[in-house]
Amino acid sequence: MQDQVEPSPGRSLYPRVLLKLSGEALMGDRGFGLDSRTMGRVAAEVKRAHDCGIEICLVIGGGNIFRGLSGAAHGMDRAQGDYMGMLATVMNALGLQSALEGLGIHTRVQSAIPMATVCEPYIRRRAIRHLEKGRVVIFAAGTGNPYFTTDTAATLRAMEMNCDAIFKGTQVDGVYDSDPKKNPQAVRYERVSYDEVLTKNLKVMDASAVALARDNNLPIVVFSLKEEGAMTRVLFGEGRFTVVGPTG
Question: Which of 198, 237, 242, 236 is nearest to 219 (CA)?
Answer without folding.
Answer: 242
